[in-house]
Every structure is written in C-alpha cells, then in structure tokens.
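idk why but the lab printer keeps eating my pages so im just putting this in chat instead. protein + pyridoxal-5'-phosphate:
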Amino acid sequence: MKFDTKVVRAGINPDPTTGSIIPPIYETATYVLPEVGKDKGFDYTRSSNPTRQLLEENLAAIEGGRYGCAYASGMSAVDACMKLLKSGDHVVSSDDVYGGVSRHFNQVLTRYGLTFTYVDTSDPDAVRKAIKPETRMLWVETPTNPLLKVTDVKAMADIAKERDLIYGIDSTFATPAFLRPLEWGADIVMHSTTKYISGHNQIIGGAVITNREDIYNELKFIQKTIGAVCSPFDCWLVLLGVKTLSLRMKRHAENAQKIAEYLEAHGKISRVSYPGLPSHPQYDIARAQMDGFSGMISFELTGGILSGKALMNNVRMCGLAESLGSVETMITHPATMTHADVPAEERSARGLTDGLVRLSVGIEDVEDIIADLDQALEKA
Ligand SMILES: Cc1ncc(COP(=O)(O)O)c(C=O)c1O
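predcted complex ->
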C-alpha cells in the first residue's frame, strides 16, 4: 500500500458484525470473559481496547513500523519513552525542544535521577562530544519547536548505533507524510497526535511507534501499568483525522512555503525560519530526508518584541493560541506561551528570543492568511 492509501485504509476494515465502514467506538472499561483464564483478546481497557488497537495499528503502518502505542497526550508519550531508562542514565537531547518537554526533563525526571545534556543535534560533532559513559538515549526533535532546526536523522542513527543508544525522534512537526524516521534508523518515533496527526484541534493525544520488539514490550508494559492511554472516543477521532493527513499536509506545506516567502520579502521582518527556504541553514538536509517541509514557520520582526506583540494582537483570522498543526492558522508567542517555563537565560542561549513569533499555517486559502498577516503587520 502506498502512503496515501495507508492513511485511509491501513488496519481499517468494515465492521464484521454490521458492515459499518467506520469502526465502532468500544467505549467500555472491561470485557466479560467466556470462562476463567480465557478472554477474547481484551480484558481491561487500560491494557488494551479494540478502538485503541486500531489506531495503534494504523499509526504503526503509516510510520512504516511494526508496533504502536497510543497515549493520553504527547507528553505522556514522551514520558513513556523516558521510562525505558533508569535512575543514573543520561540523555543527550536536542537543545530546541518543545517547552513542555524540557520542563518534564528538567523539573520532573531529574528528581528520579535521570540527567540531560542539551546540544544542537544539527551538529553531529556536538552530539558525539556530549555522550558520556552513562548515556543511554539520544532524543531528537526535528524540525524543532519553535526554531525549526533540522537534524540529519541518519547521521544521528549512525552515532546512536556506534554508541549503543536508544534513538528517539519527536516527529510531531514533520509527520509521517513528510518524514519516516524509522526508515533512517531511529528506534522510536514519537508524536503529539494533538497536532497534525489528528489535525482539527479536537483531542489531546500522543503516540510512540517502533520496530523493536524489546522496546515495544517494555512500552506496552509501562502503558498498561501507568494507564496514560488515549480514550476510545479520542482514538476514534484521531483515526478520522488520519484519513486526511496526506491531503492536509500537502496543503499546509504549500501554504507555508508561500507565506514564508512573503514574510522573508517583507520589510518589517528580520529573520524567517522555514525548512523550505534556501536560506534555512539545514535546507539541504531537510530536502534530502523530508518529502515536504510542513506547515510551521517562526520569524522575528525588525521592531523586536513590541512589534511582534502588535502583530499577534492585531491578527483577525489567525488565532492567537498555544497549539499547532490544525486546519486553522494559529499564531503563538513562544516566550510567554509554549516556552514560558524555559528559564529566560536558557531561552536566550538557544536563540529563542522574546521577539520570536511562531506561525502554524492552516489549510485556509493562502491569500486570506497573507491578507490577515499583512493588515496586522501594517500595525506592527
Ligand atoms: C514537538 C512537540 N512535542 C510534544 C508536545 C506535547 O504534546 P501534548 O501537548 O499533546 O502533550 C508538543 C506540544 O506542543 C510539541 O509541540
């Protein structure tokens, strides 16, 4: 099956009882056993659920993986990956990660004896230097939130293999429509399904996909033990969203390319980061490993923070909102919203300035999005 067919059909067959073309929602906590010691494949929904299983199979198929686990949020998916480690283990992580991820690493997981070193993973030498004898995992976000840095996924796979590290990728921004990290040697792909995968701002969810049976068995054990699972109804909503993933991503990317070019040519904009612009420092890597550049842009205005705020306060159609990856265009101020919990010094060290604006380009008519930005930039 080709990718565009998989998103619509992988694992989804007409319901054997009724022929329903859309799978039913098994909104149940438990399952009646035919006799002691026997079940029909399910015993309790924290452990497994038919609707969740369908989503897990569907997501695994579109990532080109064998196994999937669906979680209650992207953060619980990240947490499950980190629970593959034990106290004393060290993680080398991309420096520019979503603010909630660095909050989790720095303010929660360090309490349990994990340690983290943040490096620019677009620089393989910096990654090599950061590896210690106790390093067990390499955690990469690509493209990153919010600076859109791109990491060479294969180069990192070579390092991870050489040093026997578990190699995980947060591929939320790319989605399997544009990047399939397992094909480039990653052990784990993680998604906030809240974003492009579900696509309509309708749920909070997460997923982890792997080809490694040992990792899957451990993840499954952690999932059923801790129970941060995606509800049957939310799994069903994600399944509906996935059907249009390919179509949506093409439109997100097409719109984002035009908007990035418009912003780059605008006199009030000093810097634009979009992996599809030749000015992007990792443009060649992005072109080599991705089938499209997705829909996220970040930029700074020549007038700095005040102009940025004026822009964000004056958009009419674009929503000033925390999230991303939905059909609606959304604009965000990372320093006070998504990355507010990253200490100010750390933000400035990684180039996340107070004037940075993040745009999640939707699938509306691009002329309407540009017209909205244009009228707001007039006032900025
Ligand atoms: C790249 C990335 N990873 C993980 C997360 C966390 O996902 P969730 O909000 O679904 O918990 C986010 C949320 O914005 C994100 O942008």
